[in-house]
Amino acid sequence: MPDGTRPAPDLPEPLAPLIDAHTHLDACGATDAESVKQIVDRAESVGVGRVVTIADDLAAARFAVEAAHWDERVYAATALHPTRANVLDDAAKSELERLVRDPRVVAVGETGMDYYWPGKLEGCAEIEEQIEAFRWHIDLAKRVKKPLMIHNREADHDLLTVLLDEGAPDTVIFHCFSSDANMATACVEEGYVLSFAGTVSFKNARDLREAAKIVPDEQILVETDAPFLTPHPFRGAPNEPYCLPYTVRALAAVRDQNPEELAQLCTQNAQRVYKLR
Fold first, then answer.
1. Which class would CATH give 18-274?
2. Sequence spans of domains, the chain
């Protein structure tokens, strides 16, 4: 989480082509077409030519779809974050169903399970509420035939159990993968796509880096999750899609790959997974 005191990172050396597979333009400060353009222009100046902006509540879902229509470089994903699953009433379901069918929406997300926040965050959905909402989002993704984008925090076993029980959609993306190599292996074997954020560059993320090494080239994505999870050495500073090259270079070092080749692979994967032209 940005601490509000550190300055924004400098623009990195360009690395192209790149697609930010998961960001939050509204949380980065975008409020209208011009502010969206400014953020995406900065990203494009360093090779990040397209972004997928993600919803975590209904207001963010509405904004994500609007932003994707304001700028052709922006795509959207819509859902309720698991911590907000307790507001998934019939009206919310109806609106999400309408939004997700917009042609600029490329995924149902972010949804999933979060065992970290219940009991710590006021108003956070309880586990049973999260499971019920997750099941509904899984069904929605299958009905609209769009990828399911998962938020998973400390819920590995139960989350995989729900996916197995419901039957996963054709494409499942684990956004900001944060688990260990065992979980990565389980996901890879199921054909799921794992997306890595700035956390892979953190000094204390040894288990995550081991996980990143075993993901096949065709099942990996890169993201910022901006404005959160700014990569090392800028941890705590505000993140934006333009920071993605820092993460890609860190991930390439972990995987012993050429950064330009990894950027190309991740871009091809994002185009395939999200069905981008």
1. alpha beta
2. 18-274
